[in-house]
Structure formats: C-alpha cells, structure tokens
C-alpha cells in the first residue's frame, strides 16, 4: 500500500514528507525529477512512474506534486483517489490546499496524514470523522488555544467511525434546520470550425448543504429520473431503492457533501447554449483576430460570466484588440488571451477584433489556436433534470420505530449550468 | 498566528534550546517544543539527538502531546532502539486503557515502531486487541498484524496471528472484515510461505460479499481485489458474484469502480461465452468506464490504460463510445497519447470517417510527439480498415503538402507500411513522395523512403539517381539507412541490371570494405556472393514476395492479455506487463494469474494454484483457439525470410525493412555462423556453451543407458547427401527426462572434412527452437558419422505452418548453408502435466461443441487390454482419466496437453478381441486432430 508521501512544490523543493512504514530516502524523488524534466509543462508528467525499487504515483494539484511511494503491487487508482482525498481534506480544513496553507498548518497536516492512513491502509478519510478527531483551525479557536493552552485535537472517540452510518456524526443539533440542493451541470464539448458539435456530454452533480438535527432520513425524487442512467452515489444513498423506485433515499452526512454525480452520455443530444464565431488568420509578420460570441439554445435564460481564453501560438508577440464589451488581457509570456465578456446580450452580440503581431522573421503558425469558453446559466439544468419533491423524516427519540417526526426545515433546489471543458476549434 | 513559526530557526544552538524547552516544567512550553521538534523532523532535519527528552514527554494525559510524541517515536525508534524500549511500558499500559481510542492508538503506534526488541512485547497486547470488544480496536489490530509481519514474518506465523486474522474475516463489523482482508492480502503478497496465503471458499466469499456493501470505499477496494482472486465453482456462482458486485460500478470512488470492473471482467470468463447475462453485463460496464474519463487527468490515465486492455479483450463494450476518446487540446500529453491508441482500436468501417477527421485535426496541433503519433495513427487506420485505406492515403498526402518537416517524415514512414499492406494499389503517389526526398533528415524516414524507391525501382525513372544521391554520404548515415540503401540498390540492380552495375559495385564495396559494422558487412557479403554465383537465385531471394503485414500488429499477445485482464486496476495494467516482470519480492505470482476456468483450473474452488508450488500451466478456453497466431499470409521461403524478413515475433513485422534491431535480435543465419566461427556465443544458444554440452552429453548417456520411454520413430533421412554437398542428415525426435531432443546423425560423404556446424529453425507452429548450440565433433572427417542430440525449447517464435507439423531447418557448415524440412511427431509436444482433473474433464468435454468431435477407427494389432493400453499411452504422456465398461466394451477417457496449452480430450472404445478400436477426439483446436490420431496409431502399433 502507500509507503510514503512527498510534497514537492513548483520550484522542486520537497517541503513535506511523511512515511507510514519505514523511512524511504527522499532521493527516490530523483526519478520523479527526471520524468519532470522530460515534460513540456507541469501537467504533463506521467502520473505512474516506475523505478527499480519503488513505484511513484502522483497527482498535480494546487501547483504541488503529491508523490506517493509504493513498494508493492497496488491499485494505482486507489492511490490517486486517496491523494485527491488528501488535498480535498486540506482544502476543506484550510480553505485552500496550496503550499502556504500546508506550511502554515503543518502540525494539523501531519496529524491529518497520520489519521488518514495507517501502515498504508486508509483509516479515516471522511471529513466528518476527521473533524471530530482534529478540529479545523479558525481564528477564534487559535486565539482561544493560545490563551488557554488547549489544542485542536479532540479527546473523544470518533463515534461515527463505528456506526452503520460512518459518514454522519451522532448528536447533531441545529436551531434552524435547512437543506439545500444544488444541481450543477457542466457541458464538456468540442465544437469544430464550422460550428457543429464534434463531441458533447454533460457531467452533473448534486451538491448538498444539509444542516438537520438528529438522524434525518431524506427522500429525493425526480420528474425525469430516466436521464440518470450513469450515476455515482455517495455511500449514503440506498442503492436498492434507486434500482427499484428511482428515488434517492439516504441519511445525509452533516454539512456539505456531494450526493450524486452523473454523466449524460454523448448518445443523447446535448443542447449547446453558446456559439463562438472565430475568424483568426495569420500571415507574414501578423494576423487578424475576430471573435463573436452569441447565445444558442438557452431556453430563454441569460448566459453570464462568459470568459473566453485562447492559447496563442508561441510566435505571437502581442495582440491589439478592441472588445465591444468586457475587458481583455493578453499574457505575452504564457501567450494566453483572456477575454472577460460578462453577460451576453442577444440584441448586441459581444465581439473582439483587432490585429496580431508576430515575432519578426518567424513563419506564421501552421494551425489556429483552439478557444475555450466558460459560461454560467442560472436556473437551468441543461440535461432537463428536475427535482420533483424532497421528503424528510427525522428520528426524534431513540426508539425509532414509530416516532418519525416530520421536519419543518427550509429547503431549496438551485440549478446551474456551466461550461466544463468547452472547446471551439478554429 | 500560524504554524509556520515552528519552521523559523534561531541563530545558534537550535537543538540545545529545544532540549531545554522539552525539559521545562511548564506543560505549554513542552508542547510547543515537541511541535518544533516535529516540524524540524518533517522537513528532514535530524533531531534524533533529542530522543530521550521527547520520550520523557510521553507519559501525559494530553492526547495531542501523546500523539505528537508517538509521531516522533515512529520516526526515530529505529535509530535509537535501546531508548525505544523505555517507551514500551507506556504502550502496554495504554493498550489496557478504558478509552478504545487510546487502546487503538497504542496498538497502532507500537506496530509502527520497527524495532525487533519491541515487537516481542507487542504480541500479548496485540492478541488481546484482536479480540477487543470494540470494533475500532479490532480493525486497527488487524492492520497491526500486517505491520508486524512486515517486521518479523516468522513471529507472526509462530504466534498464530494469521489464524486470528482469518477469523476476523467473519467478524460482524464490515470495517473489521475489510481491514482483515487488506492485511491478509498484503501478507500473502509478500510472503512465500503457504501458511500466509488467503484461503477462499464459498463461505468466506459470502461473508466478503455481505461486508462489501457496508464498508468504506477503501475497504471495498480491498474486498473486490480479494474477490477477483477467487475461482468460482460454476456458472451460477460466478453469475451471483457478478450480480452482487455490479452495484459497485455506481460508486463515486474511481478505485472501487475499476476494481469492480476487474471482478466482472473475470467473472464473465466463467459464465458461458454467449450467455445473455454476459451481454447485459457488458452493457452495464460501458457507462462507468466512460465516467472515469471525466475525472482528474491522473484517474483518466489509469482508466485509459485499463480500457486499452478491455477493448482488446471485449471490443463490444465500448464500441459505441468512440467520441469520449476524442482528444481535447488541454489534455495532458499522457492522456492524449493513450486516447489516440484506443481510438485506433475502436476504429471500424462505420466510424472511420469521424476518426479520420479527428486525426487530421490532431496532426495540426503544436505538440510534436502527439502530432507524430496522430500521423502514425492515420496509417494504422489504413491498415486496419481496408475500406478507409484510400481516404487515409489522401489524408496523408494532404499532410505531406503542408511541408511541415516532421509531419512529412512520419507520413512517409506510415505510407511504406500501407504499401506493404496493399501492394500495387497506391503506388501512383510515389512521385509526390519523391518530391520530399531532400527534406528527410530522420533515419526512420530516410530508410522508409529508400525502401520505397528500391521496392518500386522499376516505376521510378530516376531511381538510380535518387539512390546515388543517398550514397554520397553513405558513412554518415545510420546503420538502418545503410542497410536499407544496400538492399535497395541490390533490388534496383536486379531490376535494371544494365544501367546500375557501377552503382551496385560501389555500394557493395562501401558495405564490405569500408564499414566496421558487422551487420552491414555480412549483408554485403551475402549479396555479393549471391549476385556473383547465381543471379537468378539472387533475384528469387531479394525480390521474393513479402508476406503482407497484419493489421493487428500492436495487439498484446492473447496469453499476456488474458493474464493482464486478471490484473485490471493494478499497476500491472498500467505497465501492460505481468507483475512478475516488475514487482519485487512478489511471492508466487500464480496467485491471480488465471483467467481460465473450466477447461483447466485444478480442483475447482480449492485454489489449487495457490498451494501447488509449481504453477500449473493452464490456458483459458478461448485462448486455445488462438494459440497459433494465424497469419493468413503466404510464408515466404526460409531464405527470403533470412534475408529481407525477420526471424522475430510478429510484432516487428510492421517495419518490413531489416531495421537494425531486427538484425540484432533475429540475426540471420550467416551472421550466427560467423559468430560461432569467431568462437563467440552463438545466437542460437539458449545457455552457455559449456552447460549446453553438458546437457547434451548427459542426454546422450541417458539416452544410451535407459531405453527411452516414449515412442521414438526411427531416424529418417532428412537431407540427402546429394543435395547438401556431401552432408547427409538423418534424424528423429525424442523425449528423455522431460526434455525434448532432436536426435541427428550427420554423415560426411564428401571428400573434405567439415566443421563449424550450426543449426537454426524457422518459425513453426509450436515454437520449437534449439535450446542450445549444435555440438558436433569437429572436424567431421570424410566418411565419418556423428550422432548429435540437440535439446529443444518450445518458446521460440510461433507461426502456423502448412502442413501444421512442418519444421523448416537451416543447417550450416563450413561449406554452405542447407535447408531441409521435417515433420515433428506430435507426441513430442505432449507435456507431462497433461492429466486433467476428472471434473474438469467432464466439464470440458461438455463444453466443447460436438462439432469439434472427430471419430476414427484405430488398429489395435496386439489386441492390448485397456490396462496395458493406458499404461503404454501414459508413457507418452497420454493420461487416462477414467475407465468404464459399457455393454461389454471398455471405454478409456484420456487427456493430453500440448506444449502450447492446447488440450485434447479422447475417448477410446475397445471391443474385446477386436483388432480395431474407436477413437474420438475432442479439442478446440481442430487442426491438431489428424496428427493426434496418427500419434495414437503409431504409439499403439509400436507397443
């Protein structure tokens, strides 16, 4: 299983190491550095590297390489998923998982790593349980701790770890009970030069914020559950009921969590909400850039937060453009053009046009750059998924059989569609 | 206020200062000090000097301080073992604490202190904790057993912890079960002793399946991996396991999903091939696999490597999902390359248009590696989908028009392959190719272009000029190009002898006299001699028709693929190598390697493989049909092979040109001869010469002393002296002491002594190859006869021959090279482990369709009784599984196995006092049947 973990920042410093078994010399990372040298960009380092005695499996997040070292045959996805979980936990605890956050909280980081893995076997990875064991830092607690000398390490047994619902801690109490559901869908698409869809699919998630006292039991049903034929559930969802009745029945974790994620495949037609009309041409020494964005199938909703980015070829020196709305920036080092469009007004389509200047003497690039688009559409789920109703039952007394009591909490459902990996070829 | 302050160092005497603080009376100060110590430790500073001071802080009620000290202990106990003993008492006390959290923490930490002396004290508390009333403590203790095993395996086995661990498999708490499984798998992975192996029976499986639904995601991965090692008893069990595992596909943890896929992929092998169950299951597998591709790039990469295996094994699963493999410009390069690979595997006539459009798009991207691979992919599509070849070629031509240097070069390399696949179809584009001659600067591209010019010299008016232009810088070219140029000019000469005589002489002298490269020199000499002795023969050799290249050259070998399918989700699946090839200290690799089922696995359910020290070489059912990769290509004659083809496994056929690595690996016969002439190790020698001669000699002695048990056909003359300048070769095949031999008699009928014998086999149906060099007493004087035995291996290159048992042999001596062919008696290939289990036999017999049964009357001249028959046949490795008597006739049920894993089942009906018997044979590979029948007749007749 996982033997050791090294964290390496973009400068190539190993700024944190943790060994769950015997200590492995950090020189093992040299193999990693070797691979890293070969890669063109930080993202391009192959995640599974084999060395004569160890296997290095890493993820790259927050500009840090999290390099796990294994000595035996191990499922690599297990390691990768675990590493992602580690970073997620850091983000959850410190607000972000970057190098500064980790260094600022190294004691907690070390304690967390110690709790998350035992001899390479995962121990406690649920954020609820971890938070019971190790309290996340906040300003108030830090002040109190310094004054009173107490620590953020809990003295109690994480009860949830042993129950049948390990994701939920016992004895939760709220004065205001509330449950919010966000249906968020991302469109991944490749659009070709002519504007036709090469590939499109939808990645959806339902993120919840549930703050309910006791042991609530929720049932969420949909108007059109048939859309969900490829789903991944949080462990709390009762799979049998989904199979038989197509409703989500579950005892939720406390706080924020992802209830399900789903995928609407490329076989179904995906409504593409925006179009981009690019017109980019290069000639000796320069070129023209002219891009227009417009709404397509938006079901009458407003397209907001539109951002267009375009990684220009290396020979581009500068760009001199005029937007009809929004602002644009061109990063002459990374050669990335970013145009923050904002909302799209269907009556007056946003347009960005102007000249490109190339390095003198170099030939014009062979191919045009691809454009990636970001946008958001509120109150719409592009797959058409709709929540029908949400029922809640709570256990008010320990004798559970007959004493289900209906909550009267606030509840709400929000829909959001945004661009995932949305690319337009030019 | 943050923890980063702990990282700041004071100017002087840091350790000294910390020491003072650690010994401070104030609790607060102590804790701060310990934190600083840990901080230094984390960044790799050596703070081990503070060991006694830190350990002193251990006896505290403060849980945080305790944990911090534990952290420190784990890190440094190894370097300070004597000091660590001081901590033992506190641990033992903590193991009895009323708080289960403390008990668990103590047992957990003790396991992490990798000091032998401490482990002794650990046993008692651990034993107690394994039976603790609290499941949290039990599950922690389970992992602790694995830790202890890692430190001292013998201790764990002696103390009976393994049995306790096995008991935990039936614990009431799913988390405990999961951890016990994880611990047991890790132990059995690292320990070779049979005691450490995890036994799986139906009961444990049921418990694991029950625990599967309720344990954590990580536990699910452990359990699924353990499940995949289990060999189900029958269809039904396999089906029920699959049914209970299927819901795991909807898990949000990618690791769980992929491990579940593994169980299902294996499970499907056990359920009937065409059953409806498999069809529906295949449908269910597609969505989760697709979903994996929308996760983080690292997850995508692992998923793609696995999908690569899955689409090779079961192409149906993802055949409609082509689009998800389309490349996005911001995918990391490792994802891009994998996607490309899978796109080609999924390419069919229906979707080829889409695929080509995509590939063309990719070929204009910026990343050079990716562009090259895209261009190569277009070529592979052309070879794979015949209907699309024309469009591929025109796409490639478009790309060549872009004049982007590396695109052009890559395109030329693949076009050469397209020519090989579809000869006389697209040669019209040669002129376009020739326009780009100057821009080629990479050896691959140059070599390919030269090959094209040479191959189609008669259609290119100025071929001689083109080749001549290359010749100017001959010595600066890489070996690959030099070899190619040599061959191309010889081809040109044979096609247009009048105009190019000068050119060919020039190149021959360049190759033979001015070059230090032995490969090049050898080839030069071969051509030279050929051209000077017999131009007609040279023409036949050099311009021999080449076999077409096959479309699936990049596929994994079926056996390897089947093995890797068992390792889905593991590192092996990422490397596409079996773990034995890269995992260190893997116990017995046999553990998971068997896909196979009914036809093969030892005793069902008894995990025979794990217990038997010798892995049974079992082959899965569907593999049997394809053991011999059938190249429906006309076999070029051996000579042609030697010269312009390779003697290598099929995957290298892609580049027909004798590229350097082929010369290195295969090494043509004359090169081999030359080597042995020089006294170096001969390329045909599997083992060092001395050992080989020992083996041979020993075989000889044994062969003389003990009459061989298996039937040995009398020697036949394979090569008459008239055809071999006086060398007469006669021979036969035999098995002695489980080693296969070719017994040869060489007779020198010529007037001069002979020497420097070497032998080489062509690829053959069963991969027979010489296991050592030919040891002939040298010189063989005129009139002298020498008996030689040549041990044979069965791991040589395989190619289906016609007739099946044909073996083409090349033998060389100081005079010349001679070629002859002989027939391998099939019983030479029967293996000693061909005895099938009764049940398996029965199941297999039923499983093989009746159409695969062939009956024949066989003579029984000596009218042997069943007992005598089965005894005799057993000596030739035909094993009798069962015998029964029906209506006065004796029935013998027999099995035999060939070296390449083909099983043949037989039923022999014996009529008392009748000179004939009825022999029914059943096998999946029908081709071998006539030969097996013949073997029966021969063996019985010679009893």
UniProtKB/TrEMBL annotation, chain A:
GO biological process per UniProt: intracellular protein transport; vesicle-mediated transport
Positions of transmembrane segments: none
Gene Ontology annotations for the cellular component aspect, listed alphabetically: clathrin adaptor complex; cytoplasmic vesicle membrane; Golgi apparatus
Domain of life: Eukaryota
UniProt cross-references to Pfam families, sorted A to Z: Adap_comp_sub (PF00928), Clat_adaptor_s (PF01217)
InterPro entries: Adaptor_comp_med_subunit, AP2_Mu_C_sf, AP_mu_sigma_su, Clathrin_mu, Clathrin_mu_CS, Longin-like_dom_sf, MHD
SUPFAM superfamilies: Second domain of Mu2 adaptin subunit (ap50) of ap2 adaptor, SNARE-like
Alphabetical keyword list: Cytoplasmic vesicle, Golgi apparatus, Membrane, Protein transport, Transport
Membrane topology according to the record: Peripheral membrane protein
Gene3D superfamilies: 3.30.450.60, Mu homology domain, subdomain B
Protein location: Cytoplasmic vesicle membrane; Golgi apparatus
MHD domain span: 176-425
Record-stated family: Belongs to the adaptor complexes medium subunit family.
The name this protein goes by in its record: AP-3 complex subunit mu-1-like isoform X1
Organism encoding this protein: Branchiostoma belcheri (Amphioxus)
UniProtKB/TrEMBL annotation, chain B:
Major subcellular location class: membrane
Keywords for the protein's UniProt record, in alphabetical order: Acetylation, Membrane, Protein transport, Transport
Domain Beta-adaptin appendage C-terminal subdomain: 830-941
Chain intervals with Low complexity compositional bias: 612-628
Subcellular location: Endomembrane system
Family classification: Belongs to the adaptor complexes large subunit family.
The organism's taxonomic lineage, starting at the top: Eukaryota, Metazoa, Chordata, Cephalochordata, Leptocardii
Pfam families reported for this sequence: Adaptin_N (PF01602), Alpha_adaptinC2 (PF02883), B2-adapt-app_C (PF09066)
Top-level lineage group: Eukaryota
One GO MF term attached to the UniProt entry: clathrin binding
Originating species: Branchiostoma belcheri
Any one GO cellular component localisation term in the record: clathrin adaptor complex
Membrane topology: Peripheral membrane protein
GO biological process, one term: intracellular protein transport
Protein name, as recorded: AP complex subunit beta
Region (Disordered): 598-628
Residues annotated as domain Clathrin adaptor alpha/beta/gamma-adaptin appendage Ig-like subdomain: 711-821
SMART domains listed in its UniProt record: Alpha_adaptinC2, ARM, B2-adapt-app_C
Keyword Membrane attached: yes
